[in-house]
From TrEMBL, chain A:
Record's subcellular location: Mitochondrion
Function: Required for mitoribosome formation and stability, and mitochondrial translation.
SUPFAM superfamilies registered for this protein in UniProt: Ribosomal protein S2
Keywords for the protein's UniProt record, in alphabetical order: Mitochondrion, Ribonucleoprotein, Ribosomal protein
Record's protein name: Small ribosomal subunit protein uS2m
Protein family per UniProt: Belongs to the universal ribosomal protein uS2 family.
Organism taxonomic ancestry: Eukaryota, Metazoa, Chordata, Craniata, Vertebrata
Keyword Ribonucleoprotein found: yes
From TrEMBL, chain B:
Principal place of residence: mitochondrion
Lineage: Eukaryota, Metazoa, Chordata, Craniata, Vertebrata
Family named by the database record: Belongs to the universal ribosomal protein uS9 family.
The species this protein was found in: Manacus vitellinus (golden-collared manakin)
Keywords assigned: Mitochondrion, Ribonucleoprotein, Ribosomal protein, Transit peptide
Record region (Disordered): 328-349
One Pfam family it belongs to: Ribosomal_S9
Keyword Repeat: no
Subcellular location: Mitochondrion
A GO cellular component entry from the record: mitochondrial inner membrane
GO BP: translation
Domain of life: Eukaryota
Protein name: Small ribosomal subunit protein uS9m
MF terms in GO: RNA binding; structural constituent of ribosome
Amino acid sequence: DDKLLSEPLSHPDFFNVKELFTLKDLFDARVHLGHKKGCRHRFMEPYIFGCRLDQDIIDLEQTMQHLQLALNFTAHIAYRKGIILFISRKRQFCHLVECTARACGEYAHTRYWQGGLLTNAHIQFGAGVRLPDLIVFLSSLNNVFQTHVAVRDAAKMNIPTVGVVDTNCNPSLITYPIPGNDDSPSAVELYCKLFRMTIIRAKDKRRQSEAVEELR
Amino acid sequence: LRLIYTTTAVQRKNVGASGPEKYTEAFIKKQIEEFNLGKRHLANMMGEDPETFTQEDIDRAIAYLFPSGLFDGHARPMMKHPREIFPEQRKIQWGEDGRPFHFLFYTGKQSYYSLMHETYEKLLNVEKHQDQLIAQDLPLQKEKRNLAGSRWLTKIELEEMLLEKLSDDDYSRFIQLLQKLTDLPCSDIEEKYIQKFSKELPVQMQKVVIEPLQYDEQGVAFSTGEGRRKTARATAVVYDNGTGKMTVNGKDILHYFPVLQDREQLLFPFQFLGRIGKHDAVCTVSGGGRSAQAGAIRLACAKALRSFVTEKEVEFMRQAGLLTVDPRVKERKKPGQEGARRKFTWKKR
């Protein structure tokens, strides 16, 4: 059992997430497009490559690194049978995100966030509830363009977060931010595809390792 | 498992805060076993066959063994199947390893949101089908669904279906989504799904059976009707091939109702259908006063005339108010007041 858990930690990219995407894929899916200069958040300035005709362009080299770290982290969490919760408050992609979550066998929350879901879970759900071990934000803003409450609640409850941060978002409380576009359908479909593939890959690897252990 | 800081107050079992009592599966199973055993004992006591002892027999036996003078049916002793007594509740939502079963568990309202998700998926399906038909240049069918004949489930019925509390906003959003789905041209594909949430409205007129005409010895067609107004009760027999003569309690209407207003009331059904000189009527009436008797006979004649007339004209009569019983009766006098509404004179000092 110990060997099962410690073996993936020895390699930097045990699940080989680098091969899932290339820079060209990100560019074709319009991940580099940000909002206008006026919407720019101060903390996103390091991630911005430049500004053309008032529209911010996100640095895809940095996005590649961040995406690789984030996917690696989700793969490890999925390998250790953690609960992953997908959050997106964009109405366009609500159905897509829920379908992705269902396909992975994980959980989704694309609806109105009730105040005490994470912080007051024992009373809202029941006595022995298990909270998510990772929260993935496919859009870290809510419908009023403020940071989603779940970012702060996850930080309070010591839950690591992975989040796609656009040029108008605040990346401070998110553990693995991924600077990138969260408004285009092509970009969000790409993210959903990547997360789904990593999680399925990690779960398959886990099942294989367990089968190998049983055979011994 | 993460260490989450909680105070001892939350860890202590607060009996009141845990909500309504949760019945476990084992408890309900035991109750069902006890019920079946008790049913057999009861059958033996009553001297009947335990195998063929139905719920009606149980009710009769209990009413016989425990006679009760209580007015409220729910307060009397009853012996029903535990599934009817203990309300259906949600069981524990997660497995042994802690992972919840439903993928929308962390939203709080999982059944409602999964319903919305499913309905939206059906909507997307229908739109895709529509696009395919347009691409092939086929016509979009629209059979006229009978909109007046059905209604959507009410909020309470939906709550019972989902076993979850809904708010008014949630309910209205769901109904709007269903309406959007039905308004699409190709929604016939998902007819089965939509029917789960709609109920048939029984059309008013279908319930009432119009009696057929009867024929007396000379072969003249006649029909009877009953009517009431305030305390008056009347029966009318309307004959065909008549001259417009009307008799009440053996007397002619001119003698029985000297006032013009009452005679107008009597003639109204005939005048409405345009059959003034064509029918004879023989009526009996008792109770009430002058006006009440006239109203009662009017209703009785209208009811009798239904058998002579087409269904469309019956619908016209119903809409004119000729076939409705007038529900107005004398309101009782209340204590502390002079009459039903009149209060005693108020003196300032």
